[in-house]
Amino acid sequence: MALDGTKVRADASRRRAMSYDRMVTAEARLAAEVADLLADAERVDAAEDAAYGADRRGDELPTELARRESRLAAIRAAKTALEAEHAANAREQARARAAERGTDEAEAGAAAEAAAATAVVPPKAQGSFTDPDARIMKTSDGSFQYCYNGQAVVDEAHQVVLAGQLRQSGADAPALPDLLTRLNDFLAAAGLRGCPDRLLADAGYFSAANVAATTAAGIDPLIATGRLRHGEVPPVAPPGPPPDGLTPKQQMAHKLRTADGRTAYARRKAIVEPVFGQIQVAQNGDRLRLRGAAKADFEWFFHLACHNLRKLRNSGWTPIQPATT
Length: 325
Description:
This protein has about 325 residues and is mainly alpha-helical. It has helices spanning about 20-50, 65-100, 105-115, 175-190, 210-215, 250-255, 260-265, 270, 275-285, 295-315, and strands at about 135-140, 145, 150-155, 160-165, 200, 220-225. The protein has a two-stranded antiparallel sheet with strand order 1-2. The model is unreliable at about 1-15 (pLDDT under 50).
């Protein structure tokens, strides 16, 4: 065997070399240049700090322009949110009307999209810069405030919240189907079989679709069809089945005027309304402190959980202790 060697040239573009004496000279020269540049930079910084302040450069936007730009951005965001909200409301209302008429899904969807595309924001509609997810709603004192719509399903025996929801719409009726789903999920998670016998709800929840959904869930609905004046007592329905040819609303009104319906519905105020009163008084739960739909939703469910924990504590229930040997 044989052994030899050959010279292979390096890439000319990468050949960079310097003698040691040139290194010494270049090091001193560059060190002096760097020192001069740093000194100049410090002199400039000191002069700018004296002229504009320690945290400013002098090329920032004027205060008035910066404030107007940020406000313009906030206004544009709020405007977009209002347009999206009214389009969504128009879509939802069109679907509700289609459901009342029994329209098929394809036609209902087309009507909903058409309504959303032609939705117009009223000139007096408002949007909040503090919490853009909140909506103007009429409160119990008759005023209009930025609010969320807190929902709760409460059991009769112990006033425990079984399901809840926080909505950005003041309308109650659209919340019912989802609350029924959440109720079913809660009962399943708790290992409870069956479902409540009856659902009591005020007039805000009435719709033919909600009556059908509640009945389909195996629950007997008693949903008011309208508000009564103070002291007004509706006439008692005659015994026997309702007359033929009644609309779903008329059937429900007849059901509520029967002796059983009147007795059962009278219990509503003693079941669910005290829960909201207790949350407001004991937990200051009439005002959410977190902003944004996600955080507000978390705070609402935190209030519901605290209410349930207070009910559990006041019930005197204690966990079963394992037997000791």
